[in-house]
Amino acid sequence: MARTVLITGAAGNIGSKLARHFKTLGWDLRLVDTQSGDGIEVCDLSVWDDAWARHFAGVDTVILLAGDPRPEAPWDKIVPLNLDLVLNVYEAAALHKVRRVIFASSNWTMAGHRFDDGALPTDRTPRPVNAYGMSKLVGERIGKSFAERRGVSSISFRIGWCQHGANQPGPHMDWADWGQGMWLSDRDMAQGFEKAVLAPDSVRFAVLNLMSANPGMRWDIETTRKTIGYVPQDGTAPVLSQAQQDGAALTRRTVAMIEAAKDWVRDTKW
User: Fold this and answer.
1) For the segment 127-144, what is each residue's pLDDT rounded down to a tens digit?
2) Mean pLDDT in the chain?
């Protein structure tokens, strides 16, 4: 079934890969970004304008990728680009009766769990460690609000690591087993978004992990399978250099010491 899909952030890494994939499906695409490119409408979505909002008319699904993608982004960039922009996009979607918004959330919403244990389903308590991760968590809640109050179905993907270019896994990836464990291949990424577009209207709101089927990873993708029919085709076990192994072990010991010190300060009667 043909779809009309609007991609915000269409000039970026994921946006450009999705545009190529969706074209092979014969879908009608509307591409929006602050950067010019083939078929891209240049718009600043962080500032409301009826002119760009008109692009949402007649759209079935919006892919919300636009925003500042930097984990180190400061609050003065996060507020307009990752908060105001998200609100504006959802408002435009509601105004023009878009069926669904698919929001690019992030694994950074859970980064504080890196050095603890246990699986990482999306209903585990979030633990962002920076402004970027916090903004993505807020974006998920904005989606929930619009699903419940404005009738816009919202699927938020906590996206793993889909690198620019060839996107091959391996020890060149930062963050040791944590980084490699969230690898997301290009074709799994494209399939996940395709499945989210095609998911039935009964999916009103969902927060889902989107990673490849990497052996031993902590990220739960079973809920993603059940909710939208995601069937990852790729996956790879982490391959760590000795330096990465040593660094991860040292960091875990350091984090454990810090947590023990926090407990001691909390429980000590001064």
Assistant:
1) 999 999 999 999 999 999
2) 94
The 3-state DSSP composition of the chain as helix, strand, coil percent (nearest 5) reads: 45, 15, 40
Cβ partners under 8 Å of residue 20, min gap 6: none
Q: Confirm if 214 and 235 have CB atoms less than 8 A apart.
A: yes
d(CA 10, CA 112): 30
Which tens digit of pLDDT belongs to each residue from 210-221? 999 999 999 999
At 262 the three-state DSSP class reads helix
Burial 171-195 (b: 16+ CB within 10 A, else e): eebeebbbbbbbbbbbebbbbbbbb
**What is the SS3 assignment for 35?**
coil
Amino acid at 228: I
Burial label, 249 (beta-carbon count in 10 A; 0-12, 13-18, 19+): exposed
Tokens for 245, please give them: 């192994």
Q: What residues contact residue 70 under an 8 Å CB cut-off, 6+ apart? A: 77, 132
Q: Which residue has 């290009």 as its token pair?
A: 186
Q: Where are the beta strands (DSSP E) in 50-198?
A: 61-64, 100-106, 153-159
Which residues in the chain belong to E strands, given as ranges? Answer: 4-8, 28-33, 40-42, 61-64, 100-106, 153-159, 205-210
139 touches 132 (CB < 8 A): no
Structure tokens at 56: 């949402």
Query: Phi and psi for 29 in degrees, rounded to 5?
Result: -115, 140
Alpha-carbon span 151 to 141, nearest angstrom: 14
C-alpha triplet 195, 133, 160: angle, nearest 5°: 40
By CB neighbour count within 10 A (0-12 exposed, 13-18 middle, 19+ buried), where does 96 fall? Answer: middle
Note the pLDDT of residue 258: 65
